[in-house]
Write a structure and sequence with these properties.
By secondary structure, this protein is an alpha+beta fold. The chain contains ten helices and 17 strands. Strand 6 and strand 7 form a beta hairpin. Helix 1 packs antiparallel against helix 5 and helix 7 crosses helix 9. This is Peptidase M42 family protein. InterPro entries: Peptidase_M42, Peptidase_M42_aminopept, Peptidase_M42_dom2.
Length: 350
């Protein structure tokens, strides 16, 4: 499947917040296949434009964030062990016994070790370790390591994409490379239909540390409509049905003050009309996505959010259904086509 191949390529590539260069080049190549123009802005966002058929001023911006959470070298001790800190929302409980890649002068492989259970106390086994207590072992001495690694180098978890049963996959950085994949699925569908609106697809940077890429790109583009595609908490046994969304049942359409009501209602109606599975997600405050800076950019942008269900968020085993990504792309494309029949000034009024 083409989506699986895309996600394998993207998730196995490094792109920690503020250090997205490696994955950015791959996304740029994918956008170039479908877009009339692809640019990189000063912050590092990749902005693709697929022009509408009429050039009548209608415009929509779709975002999926490019960056992933990760780690950064903060010290190398006398024995050659690397101390590190986090970039973005890393849960230190998930780091024990992980293989890692230190992106120094060359890629250096290491492991985050742990004291053997045979010699730990009961109290040590009961308490979670803090990130300050964890060390990376590369096998190098300090003298040799200093030739290859320096303070400030980024670190990623070494993880290949895993194919599970049916159409489920698991790996790192599916938050939000899955969103990028859904934009590509949307562009692929739009290549075979007529759409009046200019479509801007934006792979935003630094979302995990403050939605920074969406701030600058939405200011530059100034679209009439902005839709953020991100991931939502996939249902697992410990989560209530009100806090999570189901894998395999389509994207969740977000409702709340960060969302323009007409955008929500129209996306929902398109899903019904086109027989696309969907769910509803409630965001009573900000959505925690690129939609927040889009909504308040310049004089304001009418925003929407689609959330792709994802289990085990911010771990190296994030799990997702490929069908949900495909459905998200299909819903986006059909929504854009539906704008052909809409008078935008009236539609965008509250």
């Amino acid at each position: 499947m083409y989506l699986e191949e895309i996600l394998k390529n993207l998730t196995e590539t490094s792109g920690v917040s503020g250090h997205e260069a490696e994955v950015r080049e791959k996304v740029k190549a994918y956008f170039t296949e479908y877009c009339d123009d692809v640019q990189e802005d000063s912050l590092g966002n990749i902005i693709g434009l697929k022009r509408g058929t009429l050039g009548n001023g209608k415009s929509i911006m779709l975002t999926g964030h490019l960056d992933e959470i990760g780690l950064m070298v903060k010290n190398i001790d006398e024995n050659g062990f690397i101390q590190f800190t986090n970039i973005g929302g890393v849960d230190q409980r998930t780091l024990l016994c992980q293989e890692v890649i230190i992106h120094g002068k060359e890629k250096i492989y290491g492991v985050i070790g742990v004291k053997p259970p045979h010699i730990t106390t009961e109290e040590e086994r009961r308490n979670a370790l803090e990130i300050e207590d964890l060390l990376i072992d590369t096998g190098f001495t300090k003298e040799n390591l200093l030739d290859l690694v320096q303070v400030g180098d980024v670190i990623t978890i070494k993880r290949n994409l895993l194919k599970l049963q049916n159409d489920w996959i698991s790996g790192k950085a599916l938050d939000d490379r899955a969103g990028i994949a859904s934009l590509l699925a949307c562009l692929k569908k739009l290549s075979n239909v007529k759409h009046e609106a200019d479509v801007y697809v934006v792979a935003t940077v630094q979302e995990e540390v403050g939605t920074r890429g969406a701030i600058t790109s939405s200011y530059t583009i100034e679209p009439q409509i902005g839709i953020a595609v991100d991931v939502g908490f996939g249902k697992t046994p410990e989560l209530s049905q009100y806090d999570a969304i189901e894998l395999g049942k389509g994207p969740a359409i977000t409702v709340g003050p960060n969302i323009h009501p007409n955008i929500f209602n129209k996306i929902k109606q398109v899903a019904i009309d086109e027989y696309i599975d969907y769910q509803i997600e409630v965001a009573p405050g900000t959505s925690g996505t690129d939609a927040w800076p889009m909504q308040v950019s310049r004089s304001g942008i009418a925003t929407g959010v689609l959330s792709i269900p994802l289990r085990y968020m911010h771990t190296s085993v994030e799990t997702i259904s490929l069908s949900d990504i495909e459905k998200t792309g299909k819903l986006l494309a059909n929504f854009i086509v539906a704008l052909n029949e809409i008078e935008m000034e009236e539609f965008l009024c509250y």
